[in-house]
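New to this. Please check this record:
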Amino acid sequence: MSYSKKIAAIAGFFAGVNAHMVITSPAPFNPTALSNGPLEPDGSNFPCKFTGGYTASGGEVNSYALGSQQKLAFKGSAVHGGGSCQISITYDESPTKDSVWKVIHSIEGGCPARDTPGNLPADSADFPDPYTYDYTIPSNIPAGKATIAWSWLNKVGNREFYMNCGALELTGEGGDKANFDKLPDMVVLNIMGKPSTPEGKDYKFENPGDSVEDNTVAGSVATCGTGGCTDGDSAPAAPETPATPADPAPADGGAFITEPSTPAPTQAPAAPETPAAPETPAAPAAPAAPAAPAAGSGSAQSGACSPEGTFNCMGSSYQQCAAGTWSVSMPMAAGTMCTGGQGSTLSIAAAGRKRSGRSFRA
């Protein structure tokens, strides 16, 4: 990655809280009233961000045929390094905390953006996320009215849980509720006293279901279920279908005769090696020029902070004062460092270079 691209990647970390993600497909309930932040830590607006003023009403009804392929799409730019998402359904038209959500598709890692270390290079709630995801409506579940949901466990930043929902009408014939009941449960973590996800990991699900998009990176995986997460890939692998041996036959339908392979010729003995000439001693190396000073290193902070937006640099990582509290430490992009200490801007330099003079303001 070029130096300018590294700087751009770091700049993407600083998309504001007003640029969080919301779904555009499927269409959510009452999109003009839908806020774009995570659910409350106490779960007071679970599910779907429902509050006294935001309910399961308004907006477009998503009419999907059983067995059809659909697209998950977003707007916003604060993708928090990706994470893992699930698409779930309940047959409750006005879901409550007691509703049963069943997963029809899991995206493990790289959601709502693939290969993105921080945030997208914009600070806009209306920025069209260029990454979309295909999923299929099961063909063997009942038709009828329902609710569809997108949920997200973010990879970088505060430990949060996001969920948007929309009205759903499933069309078609056939389907059995028993098939719906067999689908995996939606994983809810980071809120309502449930366990927290480890930061900086690609999350696999203990039971992702049969429809999965895997964007995880080996060596940086945690496996999560309704009881929490464990480090590493402990999710059961899908059984492989044994390959059928090929049985070639000639085009004219006649007998196929295999000819014995021709043995490889015996290798001739190698000629004796000519003794190598003695090496001429190398001239002593010139003394190395002193290295450019590295960016300084501060210390991580915790608890209350002010003023809002202040950066704290620890050299290879940084944190920011948000909502009156220091955020978790977040790594700098590979090959870059920041100048240590606190300030209203974050000065960034390539590792081993003098300060570039580039900075990012809160």
In short: The chain has a mean pLDDT of 79. Residues 237 and 243 are 17 Å apart (CA to CA).
